[in-house]
């Protein structure tokens, strides 16, 4: 996968990103990084949209989300984390939590 240097609006953004390309479009396995070098996204693209199993990470490098995308939208079982602790486990449909198919853990002590 090539390393691509991108620019954020008005400022240089030298954070490396790695992905496969199909006619200049993101297509295939991908890794994207926060500007501090920590991994931000690990998954795949299909025709420029996130597609398939994916993991996303907080700025500090801890896991933020483990789930799957379909046509650029969260779709299917997912787990969300904050400070290393599970905060939500459920199902997404068209990038929204599917009502009635999840458990929120924010107010519970976790051992």
How would you describe the overall organization of this protein?
The chain has one domain: Histone H3 K4-specific methyltransferase SET7/9 N-terminal domain. It is 0% helix and 70% strand. It is built from no helices and 11 strands. It has strands at residues 3-8, 11-22, 25-33, 39-46, 49-50, 52-57, 63-70, 73-74, 76-82, 85-93, 96-104. Strands 1, 2, 3, 4, 5, 6, 7, 8, 9, 10 and 11 form an 11-stranded antiparallel β-sheet that branches. Strand 7 (63-70) and strand 8 (73-74) form a beta hairpin. It is flat and about 40 Å long. Residues 24-33 have a biased composition (Basic and acidic residues). Residues 14-23 have a biased composition (Polar residues). This is MORN repeat protein. It comes from Vitrella brassicaformis.
Characteristics of this structure?
single chain; 111 residues; Histone H3 K4-specific methyltransferase SET7/9 N-terminal domain; flat; MORN_2; MORN repeat protein
Please identify which CATH superfamily we are dealing with: Histone H3 K4-specific methyltransferase SET7/9 N-terminal domain
The average pLDDT value, as a whole number, equals: 82
- The CATH architecture comes to Single Sheet
The number of distinct structural domains comes to 1
Compute the gyration radius: what is it? 15 Å
Region (Disordered): 1-33
Biased composition (Polar residues): 14-23
Protein name: MORN repeat protein
Pfam families: MORN_2
